[in-house]
Amino acid sequence: MNKASRLFWPVLVTPKNAVVKQTEQLSRSQKLLTELGLIKSGSNGTYQLLPIAQRALDKCINLVQQNMQIAGGQKISLPVLTPTQLWKKTGRLEGDISEFYMVRDRSGKQFLMSPTHEEAVTAMLASTAPISYRQLPLRLYQIGPKFRDELKSRFGLMRAKEFLMKDMYTFDVSESTAKESYAAVSAAYERFFAQLEVPYVKVQAATGIMGGSLSHEYHYVSAVGEDTLLQCSQCGYAGNLEVLDTETQTCPSCQSTSLSQVRGVEVAHTFLLGDKYSKPLGATYLNNAGKPDALTMGCFGIGLTRVIAAALEVQSTEQQLRWPKLLAPYDVCLIGAKQGSKEQLKTEQLELQLLEQLSAICGAQELLHDERKELTIGKRLMDAKRLGHPLIIVVGAKAPKLELHMCGEEPQELELPEVLRMVQAHVEHKQQLLQGTIKTKEQDLQQRLGHVH
Amino acid sequence: MNKASRLFWPVLVTPKNAVVKQTEQLSRSQKLLTELGLIKSGSNGTYQLLPIAQRALDKCINLVQQNMQIAGGQKISLPVLTPTQLWKKTGRLEGDISEFYMVRDRSGKQFLMSPTHEEAVTAMLASTAPISYRQLPLRLYQIGPKFRDELKSRFGLMRAKEFLMKDMYTFDVSESTAKESYAAVSAAYERFFAQLEVPYVKVQAATGIMGGSLSHEYHYVSAVGEDTLLQCSQCGYAGNLEVLDTETQTCPSCQSTSLSQVRGVEVAHTFLLGDKYSKPLGATYLNNAGKPDALTMGCFGIGLTRVIAAALEVQSTEQQLRWPKLLAPYDVCLIGAKQGSKEQLKTEQLELQLLEQLSAICGAQELLHDERKELTIGKRLMDAKRLGHPLIIVVGAKAPKLELHMCGEEPQELELPEVLRMVQAHVEHKQQLLQGTIKTKEQDLQQRLGHVH
C-alpha cells in the first residue's frame, strides 16, 4: 500500500503576493504537473519525473508493450550513441542539423545522441548474416530516451528536448508485405489509443525527413497543438494541412465542402519507408532463390512522455488532472478522519477494514492511503481531487456511510458494500480495456465514419 | 508462446577456414553472447541487446525493482543531460574528466551525458521547498542509461561505455539515520544477489571520486575481474586491495594470516556520502525546530547489464551459457521430432499436449517452442544447450518417454507426468527465490563467516 505521508510529491509553493515572473507560456498539463509536484524542470527542455508521474509512465510503457507484443514485436535495446558516419550514408546530415546533439568520444569519433534509430537498427541488420525470407516479417521495438535540441521546446513533456519514446522498425520482403506489417502495427496503435479512451484523430501525414511513401499521424485535438488538421464531417477523412494545399476548400476524399480545421498534438507517427535506409546501409535478406535483396522497412513511434502529457492536456480541468483510467497513478485514494476529531475514534475501525477490502479488490499497489491525519479531510480531499484519482473514498462524519468521489462526478454517500461494488466495477472496466473488449464512443464514431487507412 | 523460427537471434556465422583477426581479447560471456546472437557491438564499447538478452535484462530490472520497493524506494526518472555547471559546484570536474561525454546545446550551454546522478538528484531536491524531517528518510531510485568514455572498454557488457544502471539516492536527517538507510538498501542488495544464486563477495571499498565516509562493493569472482580482493578465511573479512596496504600480510579484522587474493568484477557499489553533495548544492530539510539543515545522503548503484554479463561469465562453460534461474530468458525449451522423420506423426499429438500443459505450469511467455522442424533434433538440442535454457524437453524417438535436459546435468528419460513435475518444481523454486525463502549455499556460508557490514 502507498502512504501519502511517505510519497515524494513536492508541491510547488508560491508565497502569497509573490510576483511570479512568467518567462514562458505554460500549458494546462505542464502547469498542473509542475504545481502538484509530479514533474520538475531540469534544465531548459528537460524534465525530471517524480514518483507519481513515474507510475503513470510505467503503466503507459506496459500498455504499449502489450500491444507491441500482440503486433508480433520483439523487444531490443539500441545504444543512445549512434555513429554520425551512419547518418552520412543515408544523407540525413545534409539538411538542417541544428536539432541534433552531437558528441565526440576520447578518440575524436563523432556520435549523435540519437533522435531516432533508423540508421542504427538498419546497420545492425546489415552487419548480421542476411536473414532468410522465411524469417520475415521481422518487427523490432525498443523503449528509450530520444534527444532533439528543439528550437522551441515548450509545454513541458509535450515538447521536451529529451523524451521517452517507443520506436518500432519492421522488415519485410516487399512493399506489399511491408504494408501488412504497416496494417498490423497500425491496428496495435489504434488499440492502444482506444484503450486510453481519449478521442484521437488519425491523419494522412507528410513523410518529411524520414522519407518513404506512406505516413500517418495520431493527434490529440488541443488548442496548444502545433499542427493544423483538416477533418471532413461527411466521409471522416482527416489530413495534416502540411500534406494539403493550404487553400483546400473541398475534401480530397469525397469532394464535399464539409471541412473543418482543428489544432492537433502529434502523439504517434507511422511511416512506410521502403528501402530508403536498407539500400544505402546494405541491409538485405536472402530471397527464395537464395539471393540477397534489400529489405523493405517501416517505422513507428509513440512519444510516451508526450502522450501522457497530451492526454492530461486534453482532459484536465483548470484545477484538476484527469487521467486515462489505465494510466492513473493509483485507482483509489482513501482519506480518513482527522486526528483528534470527534469522528476519528468512531471511524478508525472502518478505515482499517476498508483498506483491507480495497487492497483485495484493486491490489495494494493501486491504493493510496492519505493518512496525513494532521490535515483536515477538506485539505486532503482537495489534494486528491487535484491529482485526479479515479476514485476517492472519504471515511468521515457520515460514517458508517462513506463519501465516494468519482473523478469528474458529483460525490455520493454510499454504504460500504456499494462502494466496494463501484471499485470492483472500475477494476473490471480496466480489465476490459486491457483485453480490448470495450468499444469507446470514439472508436464507435471512427468506425461509423470509416477513417483513413 | 515463443516460436524459435520467429525469434530474431542472428547467430554469428564464421566461415570455415576463415582467418579471424582477433583485435581484442574476448571474455567468455562476451564471446558466447556475441556468437549466439544475443548482443551485437554497435561501435567501440556500445552494445545492442537483441531479443533473448533483452528478456533477461527485463527480468533483471523487475527483480531489482521489487527489491528497491521493499527497501522503501520510490521510482523517478532524471534526464540523461545534466548541466555541467552543477558538477562544477561539487568540484567533480576538477580532476580527470576524460571519461565524460560532454555536449553543448544550440545555445552553447554545456551538459554531461550523465555517468551518475548525484548532482542532478541533489539539485532537484535543492530546488523544491525543503521537505520536513517527518518525510525522511527519502529513497529515490531510477533505471536508465549511463555513459562513461572508458579508456579500456572491454569484455562486452562487462565494461561498456554506455550501460544500464539502477541508481538509488537516499536522504536523511543525520549520519545515524543515513546509516539506517544504508543498512536497509544493503539488505536489499544482499537479497537481490542471493536471489541470483551466484556466489558474490561484499568488500570494504574506497570512496574515491564519489566521496563520503563508508563504501562497499559487491563482486563476482572471475579471472577477468579488474579488482584484486583480499579475503580472510578465518573471520570472513573481505576488502578491495585498493583500501589496504598492498604489503598486507595479516587480516585487518582478526589479524590472522589466512589471507587469499582473488580477482573480482564489481557489480554493485554503495556509498554513505554525508553532505558532500547537499552542502554545495544547498539541499536542505526542515528540522524539528523548523530550521533548514543539510541533508545526509547515500548512493547505491547496480550495473544491470554488467551483472547479467558477469553472472554469465562466472557460471557459463566454454560452450554453453548458464543463467541465474531468475534471469534465464525462458524457463523451458521444447523440441519436437524432425519433419518427415518416422517419429513425427507418432509424436505430434504428444507435442501439442505438452505445449498446452507446459504453458499452464510456467506460463506461455516462459516457453520457447523450437518448431524449426527442418532441423534435426540434434542440431536444435545443441542450440538449446548453448543458450542455456534451465529445462530442455525433447519429444522424439523414445516417445511416449521424453528426454529432459536440465542445465548442467545428465539427460534423463522420463514419463510425461514426471517431466511436468520437474517443470513445476522449477517454477516453485523460482517462486521461493522471488519470495526470498531459499537460503543458498552462499548465503549460508556468508552467514556462518559473518561478512562485513
Automatic annotation (TrEMBL), chains A, B:
Its EC number is 6.1.1.15. It comes from the Eukaryota. This is Probable proline--tRNA ligase, mitochondrial. SUPFAM superfamilies: Class II aaRS ABD-related, Class II aaRS and biotin synthetases. One of its GO terms (molecular function) is proline-tRNA ligase activity. InterPro entries: aa-tRNA-synt_IIb, aa-tRNA-synth_II, aa-tRNA-synth_II/BPL/LPL, Anticodon-bd_dom_sf, Pro-tRNA-ligase_IIa, Pro-tRNA_synthetase, ProRS_core_prok. The lineage of its organism: Eukaryota, Metazoa, Ecdysozoa, Arthropoda, Hexapoda. Residues 64-324 form the Aminoacyl-transfer RNA synthetases class-II family profile domain. PANTHER family: MITOCHONDRIAL RIBOSOME PROTEIN L39/PROLYL-TRNA LIGASE FAMILY MEMBER (PTHR42753), PROLINE--TRNA LIGASE, MITOCHONDRIAL-RELATED (PTHR42753:SF10). Keywords: Aminoacyl-tRNA synthetase, ATP-binding, Ligase, Nucleotide-binding, Protein biosynthesis. One of its GO terms (cellular component) is mitochondrion. GO terms for biological process: prolyl-tRNA aminoacylation. It catalyses: tRNA(Pro) + L-proline + ATP = L-prolyl-tRNA(Pro) + AMP + diphosphate.
